[in-house]
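Sample pair:
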Amino acid sequence: MLRAFMRRGSRRGNEWLKENAAFRRYVMRELERRGPLLSREIETHRTREGAERHDWWGVRQMGLMLEVLSNRGLVAVAGRRGKQRVWDLAERVYPATGTVSLREAEALWKEKRFRALGVKLERGKLLAHPDAVDGPIPNRVTFLSPFDRLIHDRARTEALWDFYYRLEMYVPKPKRAYGYYVLPILRGDRLVGRIEPVWDRKARELKVNGVWWEGKPVSVTKPLRDLERWLAST
């Protein structure tokens, strides 16, 4: 998988860096000399005709190199120009800090993640963070992105709300339980259903392929209107 390929310490990612050592040195040198830069501002002969084609990135391997170097803490996103990321050496982006062992870093990361999420699933049981705040939640109705941190951990989502959710865009159409890009519907602190809104780019309007409720239906007029307004502005 691409994520495993780019991950720090991955065998395939390290091999790829060794195979492209000259390319790596070039990218680091250009950022040191001219950074911060957009990826296209670093592009070189790697895009020439006949360059080796990569399974994910085609002949344009600058994006892959920057992602791999980023996951190893060597380069970082210094900002954005519009929707495009601007890259620079990590040492010029991240503040100076001390070093800790990998075990300490992992423990700190897990604690921060637990605190941010408020609850975690451990050995089949839900555990609340000591600092988690319990209180009334407004009954606002909204749609959640499949990548929203509230539902990002699918097992945790199912344990917390008894709500089974999977993104089915890569599932063959005949085998889909719901649809291509279905969003969970959140009302207050409960997941009450799912919806598949589709943006018609030509007509510039939002359509709904289907709605599936788990319990009593609620009005989705306002969240649909808000979503349509946002899509129309992008």
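The longest strand covers residues 190-200.
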